[in-house]
Design brief:
The structure is a single chain. By secondary structure, this protein is α/β, with parallel strands linked by helices. The protein has one domain: Rossmann fold. Helices cover about 40% and strands about 15% of the residues. It is built from eleven helices and eight strands. Strands 3-4-2-5-1-6-7-8 form an eight-stranded mixed beta sheet, with helices on both faces. Helix 1 packs across helix 10. It starts with a strand and ends with a helix. The mean pLDDT is about 90. GO terms for molecular function: ATP binding; ATP hydrolysis activity. It holds the Pfam family CbiA. Keywords: ATP-binding, Nucleotide-binding. This is Septum site-determining protein MinD.
């Protein structure tokens, strides 16, 4: 039976799409048949993170009734299948969200896990992405405004009778000025199942249009994301240790190589 998991945040800018994209690639790496759907039809970014921009047919076309969903599915990194929303403002004009249900019915065929990247907020499109799921991953940063919006999303999800798998804290800086894991769990009344550290390698990977789990599998964020994927499917994950050669040694080696 296909698992339909929506990744939502409430607040925008917390790294939800980055987590969704990398989680899809990571799950595919473990052998799962994964489809990642970008349901953020107004502010789509998933295709940029995966280096898949410019596709001729997108979810915009499907929801506008101009294309079939099978034509909007593309193979991405490590075999993950991706449905980009499209980044054209022109494509938003004739979108009808009631066509999403039929699209999802097709996508769950021959699929182990369907990941839905939900829009931020609680507008109609965001609630539609929540309602389509059986399970929910709640993404937040350890800051009060982000937690506040995540709480609102959690309340709506609970009313929709969606199983909330847990909270993913993103961009953790291990600073006392931010909320602790225990405080986040107390406020949201949901267990924290993953903590993704604030890692500059994530931005570097995004600049190249590559998932961090492929661009730099030894980075702290990559290790945390791979472990999250493993935990979701009951697999064991052995962290990939960074190279033992220190920064200073690398610098010296680089300087010596210039002679």
């Amino acid at each position: 039976m296909t698992r339909v998991i929506t990744v939502a945040s409430g607040k925008g800018g917390v790294g939800k799409t980055t987590i969704t994209a990398n989680l899809g690639v990571a799950l595919s790496t473990y052998g799962e048949r994964v489809v990642v759907l970008d349901a953020d039809i107004a502010m789509a970014n998933l295709e940029l993170i995966l280096g898949m921009e410019g596709k001729s047919v997108t979810l915009h076309d499907v929801l506008a009734g101009n294309a079939s969903i099978e034509d909007a599915v593309y193979e991405g990194p490590n075999g993950v299948r991706v449905v980009p929303a499209g980044i054209s403002l022109e494509g938003l004009r004739n979108v009808k969200l009631d066509r999403l249900e039929d699209a999802l019915a097709y996508l769950i065929e021959d699929t182990d896990i369907l990941l839905i990247d939900a829009p931020a907020g609680l507008e109609k499109d965001a609630v539609a992405a929540l309602a389509a799921a059986d399970e929910l991953l709640l993404v937040t940063t350890p800051e009060v405004p982000s937690i506040s919006d995540a709480l609102k999303t959690k309340i709506v999800a609970s009313k929709l009778d969606i199983n909330i798998i847990g909270v993913v804290i993103n961009r953790e800086q291990y600073d006392k000025t931010f909320l602790s894991v225990e405080e986040v769990e107390t406020i949201l009344e949901v267990p924290v199942i993953a903590v993704i550290p604030d890692d500059p390698e994530v931005s570097r990977a995004a600049a190249f249009g590559e998932p961090i789990v492929i661009k730099n599998p030894k980075s702290p964020a990559s290790n945390a994301l791979m472990k999250l994927a493993a935990d979701l499917i009951g697999e064991e994950y052995q962290p990939i240790e960074p190279d033992k050669q220190g920064v200073i040694a690398k610098l010296i080696s680089g300087l010596m190589g210039r002679r």
